[in-house]
Amino acid sequence: MTNGWIDIKNTDMMLIMGGNPAENHPCGFKWAMEAKRNRNAKLISVDPRFTRTSATADLFVQIRAGTDIAFLGGLIRYAIENNRIAKEYLVNYTNAAFIVKEGFKLPEDGLYSGFNASTSAYDKTTWNYQEGGDFSGKTDAAISAHATPAPSHPATPAPPALPPNVAYDLTLQHPRCVFQLMKQQYSRYTPETVERITGIPKDQYLKAVDLFTSVRKDGDMKKVATIIYAVGWTQHTFGTQIIRTAAMIQLLLGNVGRAGGGVNALRGHSNIQGATDMAGLYDSLPGYLKAPVPDDKDLATFLKRTTPTASKPSVWDSMNYYANTPKFMVSLLKSLYGDAATKENGFAFDYFPKAGQDCSWTHIWDDMYNDKIKGMLAFGMNGVMIGPDTNKNINALKKADWLVVGEIYEDETSEFWRAPGITTEEQKNIKTTVYRLPCAGFAEKDGSMTNSARWVTWKYAAVPPPGQARLDQDIIAQIFLRVRDLYKKDGGKFPDPILNLNWAYADAAHPPLSQVAMELNGRALADLKDEATGQVIKAGQQLPGFAWLKDDGTTLCGNWIYSGCWTEAGAQIQRRGTEDPSGMGVFSNWSWSWPANRRVLYNRASCNPDGKPWDPERKQVWWNEAAGKWVGNDVPDFKPDSHPKDHMGPFIMNPEGIGRLFAPIGVLADGPFPEHYEPIESPIKNPLHPDQSNNPLVKKFNTPYDKFGLPEEYSIVCTTYRLTEQYHYWTKNNPMNVQLIPEPFVEIPVELADEKGIRGTDKIKVISARGTYIAKAFVTRRLKPMMIDGKKVYQIGLPIHQGFRGIDEDEGRNARTPANLLTPTVTDPNAHTPESKGFLVKVEKA
Amino acid sequence: MSSEPYLLPNGRVLRYSFRERLVHWLAGVSYVYLLLTGLAFWSPWLFWIAVILGGPTISRELHPWFGLVFVVGVSLMYSMWHRQMKETPADKAWWASIGHYIRNEDDQIPSADRFNPGQKLLFWGFFWNGILLLLSGLILWLPQHISWNLRFLRLAAVFVHPVCALATIALFIIHVYMGTAMERGAFGSVIRGDVSRAWANHHHHTWYEQLLRNSAERK
Amino acid sequence: MSQAATELIRISGHAGVVPGKGLNREFQVCKLVDTTTCIGCKACEVACLEWNGYTFSETTFDNTYQTMPETAWNYWNLIKFNEHERADGTMMLLMRKDQCMHCADPGCLAACPADAAIVQYANGIVDFQEANCIGCGYCMTGCPFNIPKFDPPSRKVFKCTLCNDRVSVGLEPACIKACPTGCLHFGTKSEMKELAETRAEQLRTNSGFQDAGVYDPAGVGGTHVIYVLHDAKNPELYGGLPKDPTIPLSVRLWKGPLKWIGNFGIIFGAVGVFIHYLRFGPKVVKEDEQESHGGTQ
User: Fold this and answer.
1) How far is C38 from chain B (nearest CA, A)?
2) Cα(A265)–Cα(A819) distance, rounded to whole angstroms?
3) What is the pTM of this model?
């Protein structure tokens, strides 16, 4: 979330899409209700199903799963056409005025410039800004003349970089300025085209986009709109681009950085944000530092590659906060390898694993299926159930030598060999050794959880773990200590990273999480002095924040964005202050929010270029001329003393200092602007470019399980979801939840049920190219047939909660089929998230 | 009429056979219980009766079971007596002179068969009210099995049950009064079973005459 | 006995004085259920179950999100889900938390024959005292909302207590505490009524629900659980909320005119036969009149 849960109460308009917070985030959803009650805020729910969120919405439109970019692209078009944009914000806080390199081509045919069909990858050279200066009202020729020509035969092809001096046109008229390109890109997304793709009738669509953009009627900046989403947006082969489209809309309408605005991802588990912050993805390090790759020969090469340099119009200023990457990285290395990380050995950078390949979720299982991965430690998740194509995952586990599962229940992963369809005879031939370790449940362990609003909140154990159950960190510590002993005893190919790992906890076998949190915060390894203020931090003391981090090895910090969470003043994450002087729900003294206890990110953008809030009634931060600094109700997300006239961009984490409408090189794999692609399994060819229907960067695997259905056979669009009453795959073990939702079901439209002669509670089969799911029919009017490009298309939906272990499952009350038997193993090229929403099935009576 | 010798050797007349007396008291005792517990639920001022009878919960529990016993009693009475309880043309005349009956001017009233029209009224009154009490009682017994859609049945039952009960109470008061205080000898007839010839002749002349004729034929 | 006992304003099946009769407390409690902000999360259901210590029961999927068809003796709080298509074709998913309405004029109490099995407190709570319940089930018939439910093994009837145990020590009911969206409110009747009217007005003027309104039915003297409905003209849409609930006519007849007619009849009958005896005495049969009964043949 750029903002936070409570902040939603400050909004005037909510677009909830790709998420169903009323059901999946009921506690946070109270703030949406507060906004409705107290501000008369409007709520627009766009979903394949009429959900319980839709029930509270002012407007609901039913969309075909996987066509969100078409919806949002059309919204961009509508906002521009009807002048419902934040002009001043756009010019000053986004790259709308930046001029894009010549040769850049929009995807009229479905491909951006630079596509290499043989490697299925883009050469992104043209996805860059033009070098130059102020070309407001000037011609192309003038720019070309000014630009430094690229060397025709560079000795070593240097990776393309952003130009330090960007060409720009503040009148936004230049045909290659970002604004004009964006306008051109989405001019194709007319309401008629949107209707063909999404199935939303034109009049309904116009109603929705008119309502949403009404906050910026005639360019008035007072009102604010927020966009709220969850995994309904991420689980697509173009998920990242959907979210980018939302970000673009919010920049276009000037809603980012403002109270009640932003782009707000709702996390599906209590600590998913924390997991992501701590390097949830293989290609990032804690604090979203980039992970090393084999080409990073040493620390210097790595830092050169990953530390950006400012790229901006010369007359503007850019903080380019990631210029501090070396400080963050060296402090991380110090936290990992302690004294073994020295200046001389590049702070033990060589110890770091450097992945040369895609190590994301689906690849792990594919590699296991292909005998490349021999064993797996599975903690805090139920791998068989989570991932796409359950059958493939089960067959992958059959090939593993060993599997360690740390769980509190007998779950499907540890009992994959008992999946339906595996005979007793077959079970005897499964050679995988499964170790199931009883772990502690959430109420049995202390530690911190980071919520969607980036609050890092300490919690206390309520009860001790029962029986032989142990804390996860104790299990991991024991595994580590034993492995280290083995390396000590037997040596090995490269024992150094293991032997030198910094494990300086009070009790090595039971590392207290408070000490881990303190390590994440960081501490001084030598006396530090701030020359400006004269403040001194003594060696061994906790750091007040990441501003103190050094790249010379005198600081240690496990995750730079968490620096400030546990300082010398104590555990900030244990604070429970309920003061809220502004009344805007900032609650600065309640727990602690990364970064630097900021509650709304990019909050400099809540002010106009002169430093005055766009809406004086919702003041977050502002420039105090007398004090010569930024002050406010929230911690300014900005250089505190940067005078507005210096025109420093509010998006300090981007080298440009502005928000990106156009994502230049290195940001995204599949295009600088989002383009609508069809899901891999789709009932139609992409009406925009039938010859390039899907995302060109999507790769398919080659196992017998990776099969795809065609609309001729599988004509129904299916999506999966969660319910309020159940929590993922856990609560099927809890009688209370089972009472509330006793059995798996499939929501199908009345019309489809009539066609197939299915009545409510009849048992039905949902069949995809990969598997069959059996459950009772939930015949409902909340899903309606849609007209997609002239074709009548049904959508159905099924909750994911039930599997083959649980109360009902063990009692034989359901068919024991996991929902992900149906889903395909194809992923988003940026975030590697599988496409679980919007795949094709057929329905039969069971 | 059965071949049972109604004229007893001791000079008395058998008014009610053992079976009839047993059935009478089966219905009678169960009715008294039903009446008492029913009255306890009828008015808070009589709730103490339920307390005396073992507590209100037990009263509530047993009331329907006693109701079934009562219904069995009434059914047996029906099978034994319904032919004799048939209305006859002579009944009209009897009713016409009910004033004489009330005023004990017995010589002014038409002679009665085994059961006089008043007894027939009692019988049919208990019979029909018994059916309604049974039906409404079953609903009141197990209201949880009457679904909300059939709620009108419960609503009807709560009204019908007390109305019918009141009707039987009216009959009961008269019956008890006549059987004990008013008609001397009648009470003995449902205890020992026999009455004097004079009593039989006086109250059920037609019946008595028939007995005599039957007896003569047998001889 | 707690002080609350002196604040009873109505007692079922009771012959004597009611200690709090005529007592008017300044504050009557009220639960406000704003169905327009209910998200059907069932937290109230779970909170109710947990606070009252009931165990889980087996349920069956019934083509709805609704936990069970209606409230149960051990499940006092149930969200009713109803799909509704409006005249303009837009869908609505109406979610209404069903529970005891705590009527000011409670039909259950009127119908109950057992002394003090149902009491009404001065603060408006209608509470079942299971120790006094005789299990007759008349309350189930008297209730216009289908709330009291019978438990066969214990032969007692149970329903929502409005968390009388919590309210009497100054806490809000468990369901209110658990509600995440603020769709449930608890306070005095006047406060809640005002809040509800304000919200209904907001729905009428800002959300296009012209018929939005407050459900506080006069037929049962008003209730201590009130609803804000999008469409107050059609409460039946919300899982069978009666439009104009009253104490059923047959219960009123039974507890009213019939009672007086019956009492009069019984007393009159008993006294009547006694007077008859005094006036006419018994029918005496002279033992010598055998064979001589003339009658009027």
Assistant:
1) 25
2) 24
3) 0.93
User: Which of A822, A817, A793, A821 minimizes the C-alpha distance to A717?
Assistant: A793
Query: If 0-12 CB within 10 Å is exposed, 13-18 middle and 19+ buried, where does residue A490 land?
Result: exposed
DSSP A834: B
B1 lies in some domain = no
Q: Do the interacting molecules here have an ipTM over 0.95?
A: no
Which backbone phi and psi does C20 adopt, to 5 degrees? -105, 15
Count the domains in chain B.
1
Cα three-residue angle C66-C67-C71, rounded to 5 degrees: 100
- Under-70 pLDDT residues of chain A: 139-159
Contacts of C261 in chain B (CB under 8 A): 166
The DSSP-derived string for B162-207 is HHHHHHHHHHHHHHHIIIIIIBTTHHHHHHT-EEEHHHHHHH-HHH
| Confidence band of C21 (pLDDT split at 50, 70, 90) | confident
- Which architecture does CATH list for C3-246? 2-Layer Sandwich (3.30)
Between B61, B169, B205, which is nearest C293 by CB? B205
What pLDDT, on a 0 to 100 scale, did the predictor assign at position A242?
98
Which domain CATH number covers B64? 1.20.950.20
CB A618 within 8 A of CB A259: yes
Domain definitions of chain C by residue range: 3-246, 248-281
Q: What share of chain A is helix, strand, coil (3-state, %, to 5)?
A: 30, 15, 50
Nearest-CA neighbor of A214 among A58, A107, A334, A108? A58
Tell me whether strands A225-229 and A263-265 are parallel, antiparallel or unpaired: parallel
Q: Which tokens sit at A806?
A: 């649980």
Give partners of C (≥3 CB pairs < 8 A). Answer: A, B
Residues in chain C: 297
Instruction: Specify the pairing of strand A536-537 against strand A791-793.
Output: unpaired
3-state secondary structure C25-82: CCCCEEEEEEHHHCCCCCHHHHHHHHHCCCCCCCCCCCCCCCCCCCCECCECCEEEEE
Tell me how far apart the alpha carbons of residues C49 and C78 are, in angstroms, rounded to a whole number: 10
Residue A48, judged by CB atoms within 10 A of its CB (0-12, 13-18, 19+), counts as buried
CA distance C143 to chain A (A): 26
User: CB distance A30–C46 less than 8 Å?
Assistant: no
Which structural domain range is residue B56 located in?
A: 12-218
pLDDT of residue B11: 84
Of A36, A724, A745, the CB nearest to C41: A724
- With beta carbons less than 8 A apart as the criterion, state whether A4 and A455 touch: yes
Q: What is the pLDDT of residues B30-64, one digit of tens each?
A: 999 999 999 999 999 999 999 999 999 999 999 99
CB-based contact A186:A76 (threshold 8 Å): yes
Shortest Cα–Cα distance, C150 to chain A (Å): 20
What are the structural domains, with CATH classification, of chain A?
A: 6-93+182-274 (3.40.228.10), 690-845 (2.40.40.20)
Closest residue in A to C47 (Cα) is: A736
B4 Rama class: left (phi>0) / alpha (psi -120 to 50) / beta = beta
By 3-state DSSP, what share of chain C in percent is helix, strand and coil, each rounded to 5? 35, 20, 50
| Shortest Cα–Cα distance, A799 to chain C (Å) | 12
Residue B3 lies in a domain: no
**Burial class of A581 by CB neighbour count within 10 A (0 to 12, 13 to 18, 19+):** exposed
Note whether C202 contacts A23, CB cutoff 8 Å: no
Please report where in the chains the tokens 């229907």 appear, as a residue: A693
Chain B residues within an 8 Å CB radius of C269: 169-170, 173-174
- Half-sphere exposure (Cβ direction) of B186: Cα atoms closer than 13 Å: 20
- How much is the mean pLDDT over chain C? 92
**What is the pLDDT at residue A156?**
53
pLDDT computed for residue B2 by the predictor: 47
* Inter-chain CB proximity B163 and C258 less than 8 Å: yes
- The chain B residue lying nearest C287, using CA atoms, is B198
